[in-house]
Design a protein that fits this description.
- By secondary structure, the protein is an all-alpha fold.
- It has one domain: DhaL domain (Serine Threonine Protein Phosphatase 5, Tetratricopeptide repeat, Alpha Horseshoe).
- It contains 9 helices and 2 strands; from the N terminus they run E-H-H-H-H-H-E-H-H-H-H.
- A two-stranded antiparallel ribbon has the order 1-2.
- Helix 4 runs antiparallel to helix 5 and helix 7 packs parallel to helix 9.
- The mean pLDDT is about 95.
Length: about 210
C-alpha cells in the first residue's frame, strides 16, 4: 500500500503550483466578479513560495512548516495567511522524524491544518469562502485507509464544495457588501482550493 513520502509530496506541490500559476488570470477574473480581483495573483504567490520551500526541505514535517512560513512571509494578505496557517497546522499534526505517512496519518495532519485555519477565520461551510471546499475535503479524508482513495475523495469533495458556492451569498470579504448580488458566481478561494486538491490527487496516483 502506497504511503506519502517527501519525494511524492514535492511532486504533488509542484503540480499544484503549476496548475495555479496557469490559472492565475482566470482566478483573478473570477474574484473580480465579487471581490478585489487579486486572488489569482495572491494564491499563485503563496503556493509558489510554499513549493520552493518544500523542494528544499529535508523531511515531511519540516516541509509543511517551511512551506507555511514561506507562504505567510510572501504576503500579509488573507490568502497567504490562511494558506500558511493550513500548512503549518498540517506540520503540527505530523510526528517528528516521520519519513512517510499512511492514510490515517495524512487525515490526522490535514485535520490539524483545518483546525489551524478555523482558528484564524470565522468562516464555515455556506459562507462562500475557501472553507466551502476545504472543510468537506478534510472531512472526507477521515476514516480512509487507502491514500489514493483519500486524495481522490478529498478532490471530489472540494470540487463539489467549490461548485456549491455559485448559489451562496457571500458573508466575508468585499463580496459580503454585495448581498444577494454575490449569488451566481463561484468563490475564487474555493475554486483554487479545489484545484490544489485535484492536483494532489492526480499526482499521487501516478506511479
Amino acid at each position: 500500500m502506497q504511503k506519502l513520502n517527501l519525494a511524492k509530496l514535492q511532486k504533488m506541490f509542484a503540480a499544484a503550483a503549476a496548475d495555479i500559476t496557469a490559472a492565475e488570470k482566470d482566478l483573478s477574473a473570477l474574484d473580480a466578479v465579487c471581490g478585489d480581483g487579486d486572488h489569482g495573483t495572491a494564491i499563485k504567490g503563496a503556493i509558489n513560495a510554499a513549493n520552493d520551500a518544500i523542494a528544499a526541505a529535508g523531511d515531511i514535517k519540516g516541509a509543511f512548516f517551511d512551506a507555511g512560513f514561506a507562504s505567510m512571509s510572501h504576503s500579509n494578505g488573507s490568502t497567504s495567511t490562511l494558506f500558511g496557517s493550513l500548512l503549518m497546522g498540517i506540520s503540527d499534526g505530523i510526528d517528528a522524524g516521520a519519513e512517510e505517512l499512511g492514510a490515517e496519518e495524512v487525515a490526522k495532519a490535514f485535520k490539524s491544518g483545518l483546525d489551524s485555519v478555523m482558528s484564524n477565520t470565522g468562516a464555515k461551510v455556506g459562507d462562500k469562502t475557501l472553507m466551502d471546499a476545504l472543510i468537506p475535503a478534510v472531512e472526507s479524508m477521515q476514516g480512509k485507509t487507502d491514500l489514493e482513495e483519500l486524495f481522490n475523495s478529498a478532490a471530489a469533495a472540494a470540487a463539489a464544495g467549490a461548485e456549491s458556492t455559485v448559489k451562496l451569498q457571500a458573508k466575508f470579504g468585499r463580496a459580503r457588501n454585495l448581498g444577494e448580488k454575490s449569488v451566481g458566481s463561484k468563490d475564487a478561494g474555493a475554486v483554487s482550493d479545489a484545484m490544489i486538491f485535484a492536483a494532489f490527487a492526480r499526482e499521487f496516483s501516478k506511479r
